[in-house]
Amino acid sequence: MIKAKAYERRERILKLLREAIEAENMRDTETAKKRLSEVLELSEVYEPEFYFEACFRMANVLLEEEDYRGAVEYSLRGIRRAPSREHYRLGIVRLGEVLRAIKAIGKLGELAKEADERIEQIKDDEELYGFVLEVLKIARGQKSDRKFRTKEFNAVLESLSR
Questions:
Q1: Among residues 53, 61, 73, 68, which one has the least CA distance to residue 31?
Q2: 8 A C-beta contact, residue 78 and residue 91
Q3: What is the Cα–Cα distance from 156 to 151, expressed in whole angstroms?
């Protein structure tokens, strides 16, 4: 019975992900967001890999809608809930892609506005929290000189500082 429920849940998640991708490809962001929200709800507890992927897909949809803060928040959510160290590192790379896209259109400074309340959710991850503080410094036009244990953080900061 439990295996059947897990199988049905995975099948439902896969169906929703397919629908979200199709909606994304057709530039139907509302449908994509709705399907991804359902995936996030279904996968949060028992399917961390799907949750991780849905967070970054949602970030891409929000980026397309020019909701830059939302895109970063979903990226951070994916990183925080990464099911493995490899996913965590991949999440940092994907967050870097989101941040570089925001910087390329000249909107990185918008992230610094009212950021305090949004980053409270990541305080329990000291390195991620420190990284976000450094990104906010860069967004405010300040220089970042901090180095992190995780090389992906350093690579993202370096790319944003150019």
A1: 61
A2: yes
A3: 9
Place domain 2-161 in its CATH homologous superfamily. Answer: Tetratricopeptide repeat domain (1.25.40.10)
C-alpha dihedral, 39 to 40 to 42 to 46, nearest 10°:
120
Q: Long-range contact list for 58-62, CB < 8 A, 24+ apart?
A: 58/33, 59/94, 59/98, 60/24, 60/98, 61/24, 61/29, 61/32, 61/33, 61/36, 62/33
Tens-digit pLDDT profile for residues 43-63: 999 999 999 999 999 999 999
Instruction: Please state the domain extents for the chain.
Output: 2-161
pLDDT tens, 71-115?
Answer: 999 999 999 999 999 999 999 999 999 999 999 999 999 998 877
Higher per-residue confidence, 95 vs 4: 95
Start-to-end Cα distance in the chain: 55
For residue 117, pLDDT over 80 is answered with no
Pairwise CA distance, residues 115 & 136, whole Å: 8
The closest alpha carbon to 95, from 111, 109, 79, belongs to 79
